[in-house]
Amino acid sequence: MTIPSSATPAPSRPLILTMAAGAGFAVASLYYAQPVLQRITDDLHLTVPQSGLIPTLTQIGYAAGIFLLLPLGDRYDRRTLIVVKALALALMLGLCSLAPGLNTLLLTSFLIGVTATLAQDIVPAASILAPAGQQGRTIGTVMTGLTAGILLSRTVSGVVGEHFGWRAIYLIAAALLLAMAGVLWRMLPRFAAQSTLSYPGLLLSLGGLWKTHPPLRRAALTTAVLSVAFSAFWSTLALMLHQRHGLGSDVAGAFGLAGAAGAIAARMAGALSDRIGAQRVTRLAAGLVMASFVAMGTAEALPMAAQLAVIAFATVTFDLGFQSSLVSHQTLVSHQTLVYSLDPAARGRLNAVLFTVMFSGMAIGSVLGTQVLALAGWPGVIGLAVIASGTGLLLRLTAPAPAPASSLTDAEAEA
User: Fold this and answer.
1) By three-state DSSP, how is residue 191 classified?
2) Which residues 6+ apart lie within 8 Å of 37 measured at CB?
3) Which part of the chain is the Major facilitator superfamily (MFS) profile domain (predicted)?
4) CA atoms lying within 13 Å on the CB side of residue 262
């Protein structure tokens, strides 16, 4: 069965949950390295800046893959693209587990980022399958799986790395992606092309989308600067816990559970938006991220045990704020569903613009976080996060009232 671009079928609950799981498994691949960075550093005899390149290259690969590959979803069958990427990601994860040194590890990390973009192919596919009026709810369900993958991946990686070594988590992840490729191939329908543009035309149209839609630009820039704070924290947490407290990767991974609690709570943003409006929700979310990092900074004067307690609690609240800007039940609740309302015929390209900018922020946060940790310690990392999240709050506070959604044809996108 092929889904035409104008169809709005009601997807089954098992299909939506499978897509959510697929998105979660895919995006989790970006974060397995973070809680085991100290183990990788010790095993391969790396310096802190060298180990910091691992998550940085993964995020750069993700941004590059989004920009170069995601627009293909508007031109070709998304089912085929999703399955091919799942198989390629499984291969890259397997090769990463065998990496003998830094150069091989960096190359496979980059390619993991490129192929993990299948998560962002799944999200617009869910939007296409959702009936009219239920896009926000459907996207919210899939995005919940995606964000759970982001956060729980650290917990699983930390525990596995502590007991079986850092290579084991990549082997396990490769097996999961192979299985998921088969399940998605069986369950997903075929998708008709939504654009007739050539590949160069698809890439050129990204500039037209950026130019034409101010809400897209502000959403992308806000998520990018919030991502700097998010990534700087998670890229350095394991290193900080080992250096300052002598704690292992399992403890670093356990902080992912705190983050997951925040992500789950973020689903309530939909109901809150119905009452007070999407604009206020995004402002509150950015403010909560900034306040959380300020709390971590002020905790430096407390005893070590109290510092860890504050960091754990603030991890819940800043992930709640961060995920509330991405996950929603209702249309226009979050940046993501706001973007999809702009031009339904260009879902893949809108996603490409939003997440290329967002994960560029992630990559910047990773490299800045590890460099700042080496130069100024943990207080410097928190200071960086406060500045970045404060910038995101400023962007939301100065945002004009939302305008009615407009559409952009392929011809306009090329202009």
Assistant:
1) strand
2) 51, 52, 54, 55, 235, 238, 239
3) 15-403
4) 26
| 8 A C-beta contact, residue 93 and residue 25 | no
| pLDDT digit string, tens, across residues 319-336 | 888 877 765 423 333 345
CA torsion sign for 176, 181, 187, 193 is positive
DSSP category for residue 329 = S
How far apart are alpha carbons 332 and 217 in whole angstroms?
Answer: 15
Q: Which residues contact 357 (CB under 8 A, 6 or more apart)?
A: 220, 221, 223, 224
The reported pTM is 0.73
pLDDT tens column, 251-277: 877 787 766 666 565 556 655 665 676
CB contact burial 202-222 (16+ within 10 A = b; e otherwise): beebbebbbebbebbbbbbbb
Burial bucket for residue 86 (CB in 10 Å: 0-12, 13-18, 19+):
buried
Cβ(127)–Cβ(341) under 8 Å? Answer: no
Question: With contact defined as beta carbons under 8 Å apart, do 381 and 233 qualify?
Answer: yes
Provide the residue ranges of all domains of the chain, joining segments of one domain with +.
12-189+196-414
Contact between 86 and 180 (Cβ < 8 Å): yes
The superfamily (CATH) of domain 12-189+196-414 is: MFS general substrate transporter like domains (1.20.1250.20)
CA torsion through residues 82, 32, 174, 54, sign: positive
Rounded distance, CA 152 to CA 138, Å?
21
Grouping H, G, I as helix, E, B as strand and the rest as coil, residue 3 is: strand
3-state helix, strand, coil split of the chain in percent (to 5) is 80, 0, 20
Q: Which residues of 135-172 are buried (b: 16+ CB within 10 A; e: fewer)?
A: bbbbbbbbbbbbbbbbbbbbbbbbbbbbeeebbebbbb
Q: How far apart are CA 146 and CA 84, in angstroms?
A: 19
**HSE of 37 in the Cβ direction (CA atoms, 13 Å)?**
31
